[in-house]
Amino acid sequence: MDMHKHLILLSGILLGAAVSTPVYAQSANTPQNTKNTTSDTAALLPPSSSPSVLVVAPSASSPTSTQVVSVSPDTKPTGVEADPAAPQPSAWGQILSQYTVQASNGGPTLFDYKALAASPSDMEKLAHYIQNLSVQKPSTMDRAHAMAYWANLYNALTVQVVAQNYPVKSIREIKSGWHKGPWRRELVTVEGEKLSLDSIEHGIMRPTFKTPLVHYMVNCASIGCPNLKPTPWRAETLDADLENAARTYINSPRGVNIVKGRLTVSSIYRWFRKDFGNNEADIIAHLLAYADNPLKARIVGFKKIDKYKYNWDVNAP
After folding, report:
1. What is the C-alpha to C-alpha distance for residues 288 and 300, in angstroms, rounded to an integer?
2. Considering only Cβ atoms within 10 Å of each terminal Cβ, which end of the chain, N or C, has fewer?
3. pLDDT by residue (tens digit) across 73-115?
Protein backbone atom coordinates (compact mmCIF):
# COMPACT_ATOMS: atom_id res chain seq x y z
CA MET A 1 0.00 0.00 0.00
CA ASP A 2 1.32 3.52 -0.82
CA MET A 3 1.80 5.07 2.60
CA HIS A 4 2.18 8.51 1.01
CA LYS A 5 -1.35 8.42 -0.32
CA HIS A 6 -3.24 6.78 2.52
CA LEU A 7 -3.56 7.77 6.17
CA ILE A 8 -3.53 4.51 8.06
CA LEU A 9 -4.70 4.28 11.65
CA LEU A 10 -3.21 1.37 13.57
CA SER A 11 -3.74 0.14 17.08
CA GLY A 12 -0.51 0.35 19.05
CA ILE A 13 -1.04 -3.07 20.56
CA LEU A 14 -1.77 -4.65 17.19
CA LEU A 15 1.03 -3.03 15.18
CA GLY A 16 3.31 -5.84 14.14
CA ALA A 17 1.40 -8.36 16.24
CA ALA A 18 1.25 -11.97 15.12
CA VAL A 19 -1.29 -14.58 16.13
CA SER A 20 -2.19 -18.02 14.91
CA THR A 21 -5.89 -18.30 14.19
CA PRO A 22 -8.09 -21.14 12.98
CA VAL A 23 -9.97 -21.09 9.70
CA TYR A 24 -13.57 -22.18 9.39
CA ALA A 25 -13.70 -25.88 10.14
CA GLN A 26 -12.36 -27.89 7.25
CA SER A 27 -14.23 -30.98 8.37
CA ALA A 28 -17.55 -31.42 10.05
CA ASN A 29 -15.82 -31.83 13.40
CA THR A 30 -12.37 -30.28 13.49
CA PRO A 31 -11.13 -26.85 12.34
CA GLN A 32 -7.80 -26.55 10.57
CA ASN A 33 -5.20 -24.04 11.66
CA THR A 34 -4.22 -21.37 9.19
CA LYS A 35 -1.19 -19.17 8.73
CA ASN A 36 -0.84 -15.86 10.51
CA THR A 37 -3.20 -13.37 8.89
CA THR A 38 -3.08 -10.56 11.44
CA SER A 39 0.29 -9.17 10.41
CA ASP A 40 -0.81 -9.04 6.77
CA THR A 41 -3.94 -7.07 7.58
CA ALA A 42 -2.80 -4.83 10.44
CA ALA A 43 -2.98 -1.75 8.23
CA LEU A 44 -6.70 -2.32 7.70
CA LEU A 45 -7.62 -2.30 11.37
CA PRO A 46 -9.80 0.50 12.78
CA PRO A 47 -8.88 2.52 15.86
CA SER A 48 -8.77 0.36 18.99
CA SER A 49 -9.65 1.14 22.58
CA SER A 50 -5.99 1.04 23.65
CA PRO A 51 -4.55 4.02 25.60
CA SER A 52 -2.88 5.42 22.49
CA VAL A 53 -2.80 4.82 18.78
CA LEU A 54 -0.20 5.29 16.09
CA VAL A 55 -0.93 7.37 13.02
CA VAL A 56 1.17 7.05 9.88
CA ALA A 57 0.87 10.41 8.17
CA PRO A 58 2.72 12.71 5.76
CA SER A 59 5.55 14.58 7.44
CA ALA A 60 4.95 18.29 7.95
CA SER A 61 8.49 19.05 6.86
CA SER A 62 8.43 16.92 3.74
CA PRO A 63 5.31 15.97 1.76
CA THR A 64 7.16 13.02 0.24
CA SER A 65 8.04 11.36 3.55
CA THR A 66 5.99 9.95 6.41
CA GLN A 67 6.09 10.11 10.17
CA VAL A 68 4.57 8.02 12.95
CA VAL A 69 2.98 9.92 15.81
CA SER A 70 1.20 8.77 18.98
CA VAL A 71 -2.12 10.40 19.80
CA SER A 72 -4.67 10.15 22.58
CA PRO A 73 -7.79 8.11 21.79
CA ASP A 74 -9.77 11.30 22.43
CA THR A 75 -7.88 13.06 19.65
CA LYS A 76 -9.36 12.79 16.18
CA PRO A 77 -6.42 12.84 13.74
CA THR A 78 -6.95 15.02 10.70
CA GLY A 79 -7.81 13.08 7.58
CA VAL A 80 -8.80 9.76 9.16
CA GLU A 81 -12.55 10.30 9.49
CA ALA A 82 -14.83 7.71 7.92
CA ASP A 83 -15.42 8.58 4.29
CA PRO A 84 -18.81 10.36 4.06
CA ALA A 85 -19.06 9.09 0.49
CA ALA A 86 -19.00 5.45 1.64
CA PRO A 87 -21.44 3.36 -0.41
CA GLN A 88 -24.90 3.04 1.03
CA PRO A 89 -26.04 -0.53 1.68
CA SER A 90 -29.03 -0.16 -0.67
CA ALA A 91 -27.68 -2.52 -3.36
CA TRP A 92 -26.86 -5.21 -0.80
CA GLY A 93 -30.17 -4.52 0.89
CA GLN A 94 -32.02 -5.06 -2.38
CA ILE A 95 -30.22 -8.37 -2.96
CA LEU A 96 -31.03 -9.55 0.56
CA SER A 97 -34.65 -8.41 0.33
CA GLN A 98 -35.21 -10.20 -2.96
CA TYR A 99 -33.43 -13.49 -2.31
CA THR A 100 -33.63 -14.26 1.42
CA VAL A 101 -36.36 -16.50 2.76
CA GLN A 102 -37.17 -15.52 6.33
CA ALA A 103 -36.74 -18.09 9.08
CA SER A 104 -39.74 -19.48 10.92
CA ASN A 105 -40.14 -21.61 14.04
CA GLY A 106 -36.45 -21.38 14.89
CA GLY A 107 -35.34 -22.44 11.42
CA PRO A 108 -32.50 -20.78 9.50
CA THR A 109 -32.84 -17.85 7.14
CA LEU A 110 -32.37 -19.26 3.63
CA PHE A 111 -30.93 -17.63 0.51
CA ASP A 112 -31.98 -18.41 -3.06
CA TYR A 113 -28.56 -18.71 -4.71
CA LYS A 114 -30.08 -20.41 -7.75
CA ALA A 115 -32.35 -17.47 -8.51
CA LEU A 116 -29.55 -14.95 -7.96
CA ALA A 117 -27.21 -16.90 -10.24
CA ALA A 118 -29.92 -16.86 -12.93
CA SER A 119 -30.05 -13.04 -12.86
CA PRO A 120 -27.02 -11.50 -14.62
CA SER A 121 -28.19 -8.00 -13.67
CA ASP A 122 -28.35 -8.81 -9.97
CA MET A 123 -25.03 -10.66 -10.06
CA GLU A 124 -23.58 -7.52 -11.61
CA LYS A 125 -25.26 -5.39 -8.95
CA LEU A 126 -23.67 -7.55 -6.25
CA ALA A 127 -20.26 -7.32 -7.92
CA HIS A 128 -20.56 -3.52 -8.09
CA TYR A 129 -21.52 -3.37 -4.41
CA ILE A 130 -18.44 -5.39 -3.46
CA GLN A 131 -16.27 -3.22 -5.70
CA ASN A 132 -17.66 -0.07 -4.07
CA LEU A 133 -16.86 -1.46 -0.63
CA SER A 134 -13.35 -2.42 -1.69
CA VAL A 135 -12.36 1.18 -2.45
CA GLN A 136 -13.36 2.41 1.00
CA LYS A 137 -10.87 2.88 3.85
CA PRO A 138 -12.04 0.82 6.83
CA SER A 139 -8.82 1.74 8.67
CA THR A 140 -10.29 5.23 9.15
CA MET A 141 -13.68 4.08 10.46
CA ASP A 142 -14.80 3.97 14.06
CA ARG A 143 -15.50 0.61 15.68
CA ALA A 144 -19.21 0.34 14.86
CA HIS A 145 -18.83 1.39 11.23
CA ALA A 146 -15.84 -0.92 10.78
CA MET A 147 -17.70 -3.91 12.23
CA ALA A 148 -20.66 -3.28 9.92
CA TYR A 149 -18.33 -2.76 6.96
CA TRP A 150 -16.42 -6.01 7.39
CA ALA A 151 -19.53 -8.08 8.13
CA ASN A 152 -21.31 -6.78 5.03
CA LEU A 153 -18.24 -7.39 2.88
CA TYR A 154 -17.78 -10.91 4.25
CA ASN A 155 -21.43 -11.86 3.73
CA ALA A 156 -21.64 -10.31 0.25
CA LEU A 157 -18.49 -12.17 -0.84
CA THR A 158 -19.85 -15.44 0.55
CA VAL A 159 -23.14 -15.04 -1.31
CA GLN A 160 -21.25 -14.15 -4.48
CA VAL A 161 -18.90 -17.14 -4.39
CA VAL A 162 -21.71 -19.61 -3.64
CA ALA A 163 -23.91 -18.18 -6.41
CA GLN A 164 -21.00 -18.33 -8.86
CA ASN A 165 -20.51 -22.03 -8.07
CA TYR A 166 -24.14 -23.05 -7.64
CA PRO A 167 -25.50 -25.71 -7.47
CA VAL A 168 -23.59 -27.10 -4.49
CA LYS A 169 -24.88 -29.15 -1.58
CA SER A 170 -22.39 -27.52 0.77
CA ILE A 171 -20.06 -24.55 0.62
CA ARG A 172 -17.28 -26.99 1.48
CA GLU A 173 -17.52 -28.34 -2.08
CA ILE A 174 -16.04 -25.04 -3.31
CA LYS A 175 -12.30 -25.53 -2.99
CA SER A 176 -9.41 -23.23 -2.18
CA GLY A 177 -6.73 -25.19 -3.95
CA TRP A 178 -6.67 -28.51 -2.08
CA HIS A 179 -8.59 -27.12 0.87
CA LYS A 180 -12.31 -27.58 1.39
CA GLY A 181 -14.33 -24.39 1.23
CA PRO A 182 -13.59 -21.04 -0.46
CA TRP A 183 -12.28 -19.40 2.71
CA ARG A 184 -8.62 -19.26 1.64
CA ARG A 185 -9.28 -17.77 -1.79
CA GLU A 186 -8.18 -14.16 -2.20
CA LEU A 187 -11.47 -12.59 -3.30
CA VAL A 188 -11.05 -8.84 -2.81
CA THR A 189 -8.42 -6.14 -2.39
CA VAL A 190 -8.94 -3.47 0.28
CA GLU A 191 -6.44 -0.66 0.84
CA GLY A 192 -3.88 -2.57 -1.20
CA GLU A 193 -4.25 -5.84 0.72
CA LYS A 194 -5.51 -8.99 -1.00
CA LEU A 195 -8.02 -10.60 1.33
CA SER A 196 -9.71 -13.96 1.70
CA LEU A 197 -12.76 -14.72 3.80
CA ASP A 198 -10.39 -16.21 6.38
CA SER A 199 -8.28 -13.08 6.58
CA ILE A 200 -11.38 -10.90 7.01
CA GLU A 201 -12.83 -13.00 9.83
CA HIS A 202 -9.76 -14.41 11.57
CA GLY A 203 -7.14 -11.81 10.65
CA ILE A 204 -9.25 -8.69 11.12
CA MET A 205 -12.63 -9.10 12.81
CA ARG A 206 -11.86 -11.53 15.63
CA PRO A 207 -8.53 -10.09 16.81
CA THR A 208 -9.62 -6.47 16.34
CA PHE A 209 -13.09 -6.35 17.84
CA LYS A 210 -12.43 -9.03 20.47
CA THR A 211 -16.05 -10.00 21.00
CA PRO A 212 -17.69 -13.39 20.53
CA LEU A 213 -20.60 -11.55 18.91
CA VAL A 214 -18.56 -11.42 15.69
CA HIS A 215 -19.59 -15.04 15.15
CA TYR A 216 -23.23 -13.99 14.87
CA MET A 217 -22.41 -11.41 12.19
CA VAL A 218 -20.77 -13.53 9.50
CA ASN A 219 -22.61 -16.24 7.61
CA CYS A 220 -20.90 -19.24 6.01
CA ALA A 221 -23.84 -20.20 3.75
CA SER A 222 -24.66 -23.22 5.91
CA ILE A 223 -27.73 -24.37 7.84
CA GLY A 224 -25.67 -24.69 11.01
CA CYS A 225 -24.42 -21.10 10.88
CA PRO A 226 -26.04 -18.11 12.59
CA ASN A 227 -28.60 -16.56 10.27
CA LEU A 228 -27.62 -14.43 7.31
CA LYS A 229 -28.96 -11.06 8.40
CA PRO A 230 -31.84 -10.24 5.99
CA THR A 231 -30.84 -6.56 6.00
CA PRO A 232 -27.36 -5.01 5.87
CA TRP A 233 -25.44 -4.47 9.08
CA ARG A 234 -25.52 -0.81 10.11
CA ALA A 235 -23.46 1.05 12.68
CA GLU A 236 -26.52 2.96 13.87
CA THR A 237 -28.33 -0.19 15.02
CA LEU A 238 -25.32 -2.43 15.65
CA ASP A 239 -25.77 -3.11 19.37
CA ALA A 240 -29.45 -4.03 19.08
CA ASP A 241 -28.82 -6.12 15.96
CA LEU A 242 -25.97 -8.03 17.61
CA GLU A 243 -28.16 -8.74 20.62
CA ASN A 244 -30.93 -10.01 18.36
CA ALA A 245 -28.59 -12.14 16.24
CA ALA A 246 -27.06 -13.85 19.28
CA ARG A 247 -30.43 -14.38 20.92
CA THR A 248 -32.00 -15.77 17.74
CA TYR A 249 -29.24 -18.32 17.22
CA ILE A 250 -28.90 -19.47 20.81
CA ASN A 251 -32.66 -19.94 21.14
CA SER A 252 -32.79 -22.08 17.99
CA PRO A 253 -31.99 -25.82 17.94
CA ARG A 254 -28.99 -25.00 15.73
CA GLY A 255 -27.42 -23.10 18.60
CA VAL A 256 -28.60 -25.00 21.67
CA ASN A 257 -30.63 -28.18 21.96
CA ILE A 258 -31.46 -30.26 25.03
CA VAL A 259 -32.71 -33.78 24.39
CA LYS A 260 -33.07 -36.50 27.02
CA GLY A 261 -31.12 -34.49 29.54
CA ARG A 262 -28.11 -33.96 27.25
CA LEU A 263 -26.88 -30.50 26.26
CA THR A 264 -25.95 -30.20 22.59
CA VAL A 265 -24.59 -26.92 21.22
CA SER A 266 -23.22 -25.65 17.93
CA SER A 267 -19.68 -26.67 17.04
CA ILE A 268 -18.92 -22.95 16.72
CA TYR A 269 -18.55 -22.90 20.50
CA ARG A 270 -15.87 -25.60 20.30
CA TRP A 271 -14.02 -24.35 17.22
CA PHE A 272 -13.71 -20.86 18.70
CA ARG A 273 -13.88 -21.70 22.40
CA LYS A 274 -11.29 -19.10 23.38
CA ASP A 275 -13.56 -16.35 21.99
CA PHE A 276 -16.28 -17.35 24.45
CA GLY A 277 -14.08 -17.91 27.50
CA ASN A 278 -11.61 -20.34 28.99
CA ASN A 279 -13.79 -23.41 29.42
CA GLU A 280 -17.24 -24.93 28.98
CA ALA A 281 -18.52 -23.10 32.05
CA ASP A 282 -17.79 -19.81 30.27
CA ILE A 283 -19.57 -21.02 27.14
CA ILE A 284 -22.61 -21.98 29.21
CA ALA A 285 -22.53 -18.54 30.86
CA HIS A 286 -22.54 -16.95 27.40
CA LEU A 287 -25.52 -19.07 26.37
CA LEU A 288 -27.40 -18.11 29.53
CA ALA A 289 -26.84 -14.42 28.78
CA TYR A 290 -28.92 -14.70 25.60
CA ALA A 291 -31.22 -17.66 26.24
CA ASP A 292 -34.91 -17.00 26.81
CA ASN A 293 -37.13 -19.03 29.10
CA PRO A 294 -37.92 -21.89 29.16
CA LEU A 295 -34.56 -22.71 27.52
CA LYS A 296 -32.65 -20.57 30.01
CA ALA A 297 -34.14 -22.41 32.98
CA ARG A 298 -33.18 -25.74 31.42
CA ILE A 299 -29.56 -24.68 30.74
CA VAL A 300 -28.96 -23.49 34.31
CA GLY A 301 -28.44 -26.97 35.73
CA PHE A 302 -25.71 -27.98 33.26
CA LYS A 303 -22.06 -27.93 34.28
CA LYS A 304 -20.71 -29.34 31.02
CA ILE A 305 -21.60 -29.68 27.34
CA ASP A 306 -22.40 -33.20 26.18
CA LYS A 307 -22.13 -32.78 22.41
CA TYR A 308 -21.17 -30.33 19.67
CA LYS A 309 -22.97 -30.44 16.34
CA TYR A 310 -23.01 -28.55 13.03
CA ASN A 311 -24.91 -28.84 9.73
CA TRP A 312 -22.84 -27.94 6.65
CA ASP A 313 -25.77 -28.21 4.19
CA VAL A 314 -26.07 -25.06 2.10
CA ASN A 315 -28.68 -22.61 3.41
CA ALA A 316 -30.77 -22.66 0.24
CA PRO A 317 -34.51 -23.34 -0.16
Report:
1. 7
2. C
3. 333 332 333 444 455 568 999 999 999 998 777 689 999 999 9
Helix (H, G, I), strand (E, B) or coil at 166: coil
pLDDT the model gives residue 275: 98
Question: What is the domain range of residue 170?
Answer: 8-78+87-309
Which pTM was predicted? 0.77
* Three-state DSSP class for residue 308: strand
Instruction: State how far the Cα of 181 lies from the Cα of 131, in Å rounded to an integer.
Output: 22
The pLDDT tens digits for 147-177 are: 999 999 999 999 999 999 999 999 999 998 8
Q: Is 253 exposed, middle or buried (0-12, 13-18, 19+ CB in 10 A)?
A: middle
Instruction: Dump strand ranges (E) for the chain.
Output: 8-11, 53-58, 66-71, 100-101, 110-111, 186-190, 193-196, 256-259, 262-266, 307-309
Beta bridge partners of 54: 10, 70
Cα separation, 28 vs 311, in Å, equals 8
Quick check: is 3 in a domain? no
Domains in the chain, number:
1
Bridge partners of residue 66, in order along the sequence: 58
Query: Is 182 contained in some domain?
Result: yes
Classify 206 as helix, strand or coil: helix
- Quote the CA–CA distance of 246 and 214 in Å, as a whole number: 10
What separation, in Å, do the N-terminal and C-terminal C-alpha atoms of the chain show?
42
Whether 317 is covered by a domain: the verdict is no
